[in-house]
């Protein structure tokens, strides 16, 4: 059993490849585009191209951080 876990939120200014190479876990935050929820998972759920295209077209956007239960589960 590990004594500690090195982890970060998905808003970290690093690439997924950088995190994977160093075995750093991340907790995906969530965001909403026109009331639909997405995980901030480095462009896997929705491509960056589609994400920015929706914003350019005037989509309503909101962000959210993880809650305490999600943090404890991680």
Structural write-up:
- With 74 residues, the chain is α+β, with helices and mostly antiparallel strands.
- Helices cover 28% and strands 24% of the residues.
- It has three helices and five strands; from the N terminus they run βαβββαβα.
- It has helices spanning 16-21, 48-56, 68-73; strands at residues 7-9, 25-27, 30-33, 36-39, 61-64.
- It has a three-stranded antiparallel β-sheet, with no helix packed on it.
- A hairpin with a 2-residue loop joins strand 3 and strand 4.
- The radius of gyration is 14 Å and the shape is flat.
- The two termini are 15 Å apart.
- The model has no long low-confidence stretch (mean pLDDT 90).
Write the layout of secondary structure elements.
Layout: E1 7-9, H1 16-21, E2 25-27, E3 30-33, E4 36-39, H2 48-56, E5 61-64, H3 68-73
Parallel strand pairs: 1-2
Antiparallel strand pairs: 3-4, 3-5
Structural category: alpha+beta
- Largest sheet strand order: 4-3-5
Strand content: 15-25%
Give the CA-CA distance, first to last residue. Answer: 15 Å
Inertia-based shape = flat
Rg over CA atoms: 14 Å
Topology, number of strands: 5
The low-confidence parts are none
**Helix percent band:** 25-40%
Q: In this structure, how is the largest beta sheet organized?
A: 3 strands, antiparallel
SSE order, one letter for each helix or strand: EHEEEHEH
Mean pLDDT: 90
Number of separate helices: 3
